[in-house]
Recover the amino acids of this structure.
């Protein structure tokens, strides 16, 4: 058995991938800090270093430091350096660390115990500019260069790492596919994310004003005040807030389309893949790694901006035959990915560390 190390268990794409890897690969899940989440952990061997609501002596300091780099993500995004160090005294190889910060644990294990480790990189800071990013970039480079194996979630991320002199292997996330496309798609468009100001929710608000159907924004918000301000400004949008996995799957199946915008977000955005696996076509922009799943005009569209997205959405909402064709093709794309196959490949890779 190998260990999967996750810094924060909350309703975000990183945690979702780690949970399903642990479930399907029968790996141990070591969670540094528990936050709010809706994941089913039954059947998973999970250990928590800090339970929900607990704080360390230095937590306020770590929150202040984290705010310098991720102001809009709220307190739950705090990088707990004390837990990163604590984990280095607990974890044993082989281990896969989700993101470069958890990877500090692996780096410490290698320095003090000579153990190899693997990293699953979701996003990289190596392309960021500005003096405030100097320390995180130096840290990330050391962690990545120290890793025996670097996995990442998109070809885009792989190219960036190669440009920085580091090799990586792409292991796309998995999904659970439905058997057949929902016959009675409803007249709404779905957007799913862990929402914060950096995801530019106002774009979805502007789209909602102009489409010939409803727009539902599902998923947790990093900050409640951000959500409430958005709801006040864009009453046209149905905002679910935190939502159960079962209800989210129903929305994916019933939606006519799923839309997702990214802004130099090289990871795929789990909503893109999960939508396809539930037989719903996607519309994305060029700034998100999920575009790698899109076959233009067959299972979705890559648009240049939100105004083009409005045109595409209305075209699909008004054309049942087109919507049906896109949906069938979306499910066929989704069937190429499964958590089972992902876990088999991951296990093969992790055996190289043993």
């Amino acid at each position: 058995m190998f260990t999967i190390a996750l810094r924060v268990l909350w309703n975000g794409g990183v945690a979702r991938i780690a949970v399903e890897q642990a479930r399907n690969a029968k790996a141990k899940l070591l969670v540094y800090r528990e936050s709010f989440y809706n994941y089913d952990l039954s059947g998973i061997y999970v250990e928590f270093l800090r339970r929900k609501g607990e704080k360390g002596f230095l937590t306020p300091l770590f929150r202040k430091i984290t705010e310098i780099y991720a102001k809009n993500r709220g307190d739950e995004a705090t990088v707990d350096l004390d837990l990163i160090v604590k984990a280095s005294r607990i974890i044993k190889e082989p281990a896969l660390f989700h993101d470069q910060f958890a990877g500090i644990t692996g780096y410490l294990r290698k320095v003090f115990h000579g153990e190899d480790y693997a990293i699953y990189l979701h996003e990289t800071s190596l392309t960021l500019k500005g003096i405030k990013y100097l320390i995180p970039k130096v840290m990330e480079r050391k962690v990545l260069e120290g890793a025996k194996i670097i996995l990442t979630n998109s070809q885009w991320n792989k190219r960036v790492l190669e440009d920085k002199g580091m090799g990586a292997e792409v292991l796309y996330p998995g999904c659970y596919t439905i058997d057949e496309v929902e016959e009675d798609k409803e007249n709404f468009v779905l957007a799913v994310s862990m929402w914060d100001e950096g995801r530019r929710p106002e774009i979805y608000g502007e789209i909602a004003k102009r489409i010939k159907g409803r727009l539902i924004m599902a998923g947790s918000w990093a900050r409640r005040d951000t959500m409430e301000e958005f709801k006040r400004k864009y009453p046209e949008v149905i905002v679910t807030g935190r939502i159960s996995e079962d209800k989210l799957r129903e929305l994916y199946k019933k939606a006519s389309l799923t839309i997702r915008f990214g802004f130099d977000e090289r990871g795929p955005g789990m909503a893109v893949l999960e939508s396809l696996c539930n037989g719903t076509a996607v519309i994305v922009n060029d700034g998100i790694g999920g575009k790698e799943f899109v076959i233009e005009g067959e299972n979705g569209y890559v648009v240049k901006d939100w105004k083009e997205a409005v045109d595409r959405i209305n075209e699909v909402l008004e054309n049942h035959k087109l919507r049906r064709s896109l949906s069938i093709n979306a499910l066929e794309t989704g069937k190429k990915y499964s958590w089972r196959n992902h876990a088999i490949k991951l296990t093969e890779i992790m055996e190289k560390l043993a």
In short: The radius of gyration is 20 Å.
